[in-house]
Amino acid sequence: MIDALLEGLLLVLQWKAFAFMLLGIGVGFWVGLLPGLGGATTLALMLPFIYAMTPVEGFAFLLGMHSVVATTGDITSVLFGIPGEGTTAATILDGHAMAKKGEAGRALGAVLASSLVGALVGAAALALAIPVVRPLVLTFGSPELFMIAIVGIAFIASLSAQGGRGMLRGFLAGGVGLMVATVGQDPQAGIARYTFDSLYLWNGLDLVPVLIGIFAIPEIVDLIVRGTSIAGDLPRSRLNQGAIEGVKDTFRHFWLTIRCSLIGTFIGIMPGLGGAVAQWLAYGHAAQSARTAEERKGFGRGDVRGVLGPGAANNSKEGGSLIPTVAFGVPGSSSMAILLGGFFLLGLVPGPDMLTTHLAVTFSMVWTIVLANVITVIACFVLLNHLARVTAVRGHFLVPVILVLVFIGSYTTNNHYGDILLMLSFGAVGYLMVAGGWPRAPFVLGLVLGKIVENNLYISVARYDAAWLTRPVVLVLMALAVAAILYPLIQARRSGARSEKHA
Amino acid sequence: MKTRLALVLAIAALAAGLPFGAARSASFEGKTITIVVGFKAGGGYDRVARILARHIPKYLPGNPNVIVQNMPGGNSITAANHVYAVAKPDGLTIGTFNRNLVLAQLTKVRAVRFDQTKFAWVGSAASESTVLAIRSDLPYRTFDDLRKSGKTLIIGATGPGANTYDFPLLLKEFLGVDLKIVSGYSSSADIMLAIERKEVDARAGSYTSLRPFIDRKLVHPVIRARAIETGIEQLPVDEDLAPTPRAKAIMALRSAPEVIGRPYVMPPGTPDDIVNAMREAFDKAIKDPQLMAEAKKGKMELEFMPGGEVLKIVKVVLSQPKDVVDEFSKYVKFGE
Amino acid sequence: MHSKASLILGAGFMLLAGAAVIIAMDWPMKAKLFPLAIGIPVFCMATAEVVWGLLDPAARSEAMEFKLSEQAPGRAGAGRTVRAIVWMVGFLAAIVLLGYPFAIPLLVFLYLKLQGREGWVLSGVFALAVWGVFYVVFDQLLHLPFPAGWILQWLGLA
């Protein structure tokens, strides 16, 4: 295996493959940055260009492009409060809050460093998991996937505000998210649910316009109302100092970053969970690491841990989702589905072969992820000060640009005006939630998990009747779900007792 | 006097009318042709459109630019409606959409606002047959083995309206095999994983999508629908085993669109010379050695069926008697 | 603002969940199981939220979220918020009526001129620049389809 590892590295370092990787990085940089361009769509558009390449070159290009998207998407989330990608929305909560406090440099430093750590962990997982990946993935069937989704829903408890009222609102938002996910055709009876005879609603609500609406619109309204730059009236000198501080933060909370990377990798490995889930679970976990009620309140206001968690997870998820794609030919997300097309174009057959005869090619993919992320992070650090300075630009220049990007971004997913209306409608909902102090994360979690919960439940019951409830992994996950709900309650009580003692 | 005036006027009218009577040769010089695809980028229909877009230009007079635009939504009904009513019949728009839209029209799906018989059909770029493939470690080698064993076979499906669901449903209803259809998987690839996990035993689907797994010997096909593709000619055909003419008609109806696997149309009213030029270009492009090499690499197999033949099949489908259509609608719903 | 927004949300969710449950009743079992299993608890929770809000308006829950800035409280803030909404709805109208290529420079120019009170030249140049980037990236490079605006279509210019 070691020789395959080295061989993979040498394959990537050939000058042609390396050049293609740099080209891919260049494209991916902008795709992630601009909210209008989706990573998956651009991958599909790039597929025709790889016909003439050898497998390693083709993958250096595609993966170089794809690995970078999550990192630069985080940058947009931090600087503008707009999700640069569907997978970087969670970074907005604390990242953009930090930008508004004038700590954009620090937030960017943290995001970049944690993205790098996450990518490395994901790549290492891909490399190390190879001997065990097949039995691992095969153990997680539909019952287990259902339970993972339930654990995810239980995390809503951690994502909600504290206190009884907070929990109520959190679970209410989560429940509404689950309901919104049912719009569309159901896979059991074929009924068009809640579509009101509209062709537009037939496939359900698209995630990207909803995310842009619920997160970006309230920020934009606020920006217009304030009339200032993103960083407000804070003195400029503070912007430049932070980047190193942000990197230091990553190491100050090293184990949290690692844990969130592992969460991201794990979710990435599980096919069928989709790309948007990992960041929210990581954010919830990061919120759990707050030790007092005071600390907990700081989340959403600019706690750097709220940036580290999702920043790491959305990069590590990429390495993780390559595993089912390479080992089984089953894509873990829509970008992976397109990458799979790339596999075939390049003459590779995903499956056990990739882990044995073509192991060097698989390792070259691992190295591509590593190198692409390292290069990107270095490039971003060099540009960091310029990027951070955007937050000092006068608001009236930024607002129209942001509006243009946001209105294009929500339109181009399906080329339908309905998506813009959708975005504005959820913008209104998001605004009300922010005004009323309601947490938005549980809603998003409900929305992304809805179909997974429903479908896997049906499959489990149809296939195993009730026997699936006693499978070992299912029981472990059930315990985890219960723990996820109890943990914040116990924490609140303990910190309440502690503050009484000090009083 | 009056007669002479009338004659002069008549000749003048004729002379004025001459340019309109002369034959126009279609030329696309300097123009851009758009192929509107009813699905998102990356899927099967999209990939076929893109490979065609790359090779058609050299076979069209004037060597125009051909680009692809995605218009997903409503399972490609949106794109079909657009090409039918909104796009201009000037030869600059081609549409490709779900092959089953003719069934959507037949079963009077409300969102349908087109008439498949009125499109200017270019043709079909491939035929996409459905097969049922079962896991290789199961003891059934042929469909007959399965039927005789009387055991239950668990089939994974995505949902009604997809061939993963509809094909086994009809097999179960009419051919007397004990199939348990477990529906709800998010994609056909997830079903393959479930097969490896032994959560389900088999899946139905297009031969093209199952090829990599058949080649890998994870599954092997045991029965197919009528459309023929290389590699599955020997398999029994579901219709042939149908016990009654009604059952046969319903199965034939379901699989009729598969011969028109990748439909390509132009807006109704597009001039004939343009349509013919396009048909010729498609035909030659699909036989082009470069395209064939690229298609092979992408595990696609393209084969051209000219628009005239496609239109005949479409008309046959749409002229089915009402009682057949009613019973068909009970089993097969157009959907995702 | 807090309690008003919360009441609107709570009542809104009550209506939503209630309607969803009623619509779902007619469906076959398999299709309605999940919507009902979620919808009924959501309706109860929303009702609890509304009741709690009416009985105890002072109670707030600070979510882990940013708070709308309080720099312009009261009527001035509300006025500016309405303006913001008008800009966004107006942009949508411009996109639908004129199409993206015209709506974009129009929005940029008008916003800089009216809201930002910048000069003619600066506004004009910036609007042109933004339009230029949009044209090159989204139209020329990516061939993304942007339909012509309704007015242009009606005038036959599209």
Question: What is the compact description of this entry?
Answer:
In chain B, about 45% of the residues lie in helices and about 15% in strands.
List the main descriptive attributes of the protein structure presented here.
heterotrimer; A: 503 residues; mainly alpha; two-stranded antiparallel sheet; 23 helices; 1% strand; globular; B: 336 residues; alpha/beta; D-Maltodextrin-Binding Protein, domain 2; 2 domains; six-stranded mixed sheet; three-stranded antiparallel sheet; 13 helices; 43% helix
Please give a structural write-up.
Chain A has 23 helices and 2 strands. In chain A, 75% of the residues lie in helices and 1% in strands. By secondary structure, chain A is mainly alpha-helical. Chain A has one domain. Chain B has helices at residues 2-21, 44-55, 77-86, 101-106, 143-149, 163-175, 188-196, 207-215, 245-255, 272-287, 289-297, 307-318, 322-331, and strands at residues 32-37, 65-70, 93-96, 120-124, 130-135, 153-157, 179-183, 202-206, 219-224, 263-266, 305-306. The termini of chain B are far apart. In chain B, helix 6 links the parallel strand 6 (153-157) and strand 7. With 336 residues, chain B is α/β, with parallel strands linked by helices. Chain B folds into 2 domains: 28-127 and 260-331, D-Maltodextrin-Binding Protein, domain 2 (3-Layer(aba) Sandwich), CATH 3.40.190; 130-243, 3-Layer(aba) Sandwich (D-Maltodextrin-Binding Protein, domain 2). Chain C has 2 domains: 2-55; 74-155, no CATH class. In chain C, helix 1 runs antiparallel to helix 2, helix 3 (74-98) runs antiparallel to helix 4 and helix 4 packs antiparallel against helix 5 (120-141). The longest helix of chain C has 27 residues, at 29-55. The relative contact order of chain C is 0.07. Classes of the chains: A mainly alpha (503), B alpha/beta (336), C mainly alpha (158). At the A-C interface, helix 5, helix 10, helix 11, helix 20 and helix 21 of A face helix 1, helix 2, helix 3, helix 4 and helix 5 of C.
